[in-house]
Amino acid sequence: IEDLYKKILEIDPDEIRALFRLMHIYQDRLNDDRDLRHFEPAFELANKLVKLRPTAYYHIERGLLLSDVYRLEEANEDYQKAMELEPDNLYAQNNMGVNYQHMDRYEEAEGYYRRAIELLTEEEKSILPWKNLAVLYLIQGRFAEALRCLGENEKLFPGRASFYMDRAEVYERMGRYRDAIRELEAYLQDKDSRSKRAQVDIADDYASLGDLREAQRRYKKLLKKYPNDAWVERQYAAHLIEVTRDYKTAYHLLHNRL
């Protein structure tokens, strides 16, 4: 598909869709492989898109690319330009908040998230502003406020199963592991009974409660359900090292993976 877009651009160097799709191919590789060599070709295409179409949309796209490599101040310049072009663009506001959060400038981040929330409408809904504000509160230990934000998101998107996982994370940070387990079990029943992440989290939550027998039972069930799964084996090895101090079993488990 990459070669196809390159051929299109040989015929028409300013073909917007080909420029955009090719930029995202390089951006996906940058993020999947964490290989900075993919940034420059993606950035070159992003610059061309902004030059050809200096709209809020393409400034935001270039800002996201810059944010991927933590060039946050430059990214914020693009988001600021997007806001000048479209003052009601909630994504520019939200993304500014994300970058200020990465800079540990929490008060400014909260302000941008709240401005993005004010721009939510029935026609323009997004899960991001309330979710990101919840994450910010979670970082700050403001757990009740984080749960309230997740509740506001659920009003916008009722029935979305991912909210179970979000609430479980807050409860885990609060030390309310039984509540976390309840949310994770609800997620497995409602969304995806095969979710390895949720099942591992449940095992770890039982360990945090001091119920090592149940944690062990859950991990053994996972290993049987997903034989030779490297990720599950690594999670179990971490449990053996950090919780039960069974270094010998963990060593053999990891050694067999080499």
Cα-atom radius of gyration: 22 Å
Distance between the termini: 34 Å
Fraction in beta strands: under 5%
The secondary-structure class comes to mainly alpha
- Helices, by number, come to 15
Total count of strands: 0
Average pLDDT level: 94
How can the largest sheet be summarized? none
> Residue ranges: pLDDT <50 for 5 or more in a row?
none
Shape: globular
Describe what you observe in this structure.
- The chain is an all-alpha fold and about 260 residues long.
- Helix content is about 75%, strand content about 0%.
- The protein contains 15 helices and no strands.
- The radius of gyration is 22 Å and the shape is globular.
- The model has no long low-confidence stretch (mean pLDDT about 95).
Throw out a few tags for this protein.
single chain, 258 residues, mainly alpha, 15 helices
What is the topology?
Elements: H1 2-11, H2 16-33, H3 39-52, H4 56-68, H5 72-85, H6 90-102, H7 106-118, H8 128-139, H9 143-156, H10 162-174, H11 177-190, H12 196-208, H13 212-225, H14 230-244, H15 247-255
What does this entry show, briefly?
The chain is an all-alpha fold. Helices cover 77% and strands 0% of the residues. The longest helix is centred in the first third of the chain and has 18 residues, at 16-33.
